[in-house]
Amino acid sequence: MDHLIEKTINTRDIYKGKIIDLQIEDVLLPDGGKSTREIVRHPGAVAVIAVTEDKKALMVRQYRKALGKVITEIPAGKLEKGEDPLESAKRELLEETGYTCREMKKIASFYTSPGFADEIITVYFTDSLIYKGEQNTDEDEFIDVLELTAAEISELIEKEEIHDAKTMYAAMYLQMKYDR
């Protein structure tokens, strides 16, 4: 696989933000040529597939400015610096939905856009929910909480109200887990 590797010649920091950093890297290609890569650096994220006793998935509906529309997603959020992903997943679940859980299990992790970003999302599953009360969202977050059946999730995917990879992954996971 070494014949595929690009070697970094130079890195320039373009932007350092609250959520992402942007770098430009000059690279030496495997054939000796040179190119430039724009790379989004992200601290990573977590997402939670949370299922109620009656087999409904907890979802959150919120406006996504980058898309210019409201979409429905599984609870998720950015890792804080030095934060354990499992603890982050539990924190995000509670903040966004008002639920905690007795146990949570890691089921997968994946890169969101490996062509230009290093963000990796770790996905957890729980079906041992405990309702604690109201959400505790960030001051700039406005979220509705939903409990959806598999049929309702499929309908929202068709309408493109569920329109992100992590939530579509969750829908496939739930289908495999409960429709066997």
Give a quick rundown of the structure:
With 180 residues, this protein is α+β, with helices and mostly antiparallel strands. Helix content is 20%, strand content 41%.
Fold and architecture overview:
By secondary structure, this protein is an alpha+beta fold. The protein has 2 domains: 2-41, no CATH class; 45-178, Nucleoside Triphosphate Pyrophosphohydrolase (Alpha-Beta Complex), CATH 3.90.79. The chain has 3 helices and 12 strands, in the order βββββββαβββββαα. The longest helix is centred in the C-terminal third of the chain and has 14 residues, at 165-178. The relative contact order is 0.18.
Share in β-strands: 35-45%
Count of helical stretches: 3
User: Tell me, what's the shape?
Assistant: elongated
Helix content range of the residues, please?
Answer: 10-25%
Give Rg in angstroms: 19 Å
**Which ranges are low-confidence, i.e. pLDDT below 50, for 5 or more consecutive residues?**
none
Query: What is the number of beta strands?
Result: 12
Can you tell me the CATH class of the largest domain?
Alpha Beta
CATH architect. name of the largest domain: Alpha-Beta Complex
Taken together, the total number of domains comes to 2
The sequence of SSEs as H and E is EEEEEEEHEEEEEHH
CATH-defined topology of the largest domain: Nucleoside Triphosphate Pyrophosphohydrolase
Largest sheet: 4 strands, mixed
Compute the average pLDDT. 95
How do the strands line up in the largest sheet?
7-4-10-9
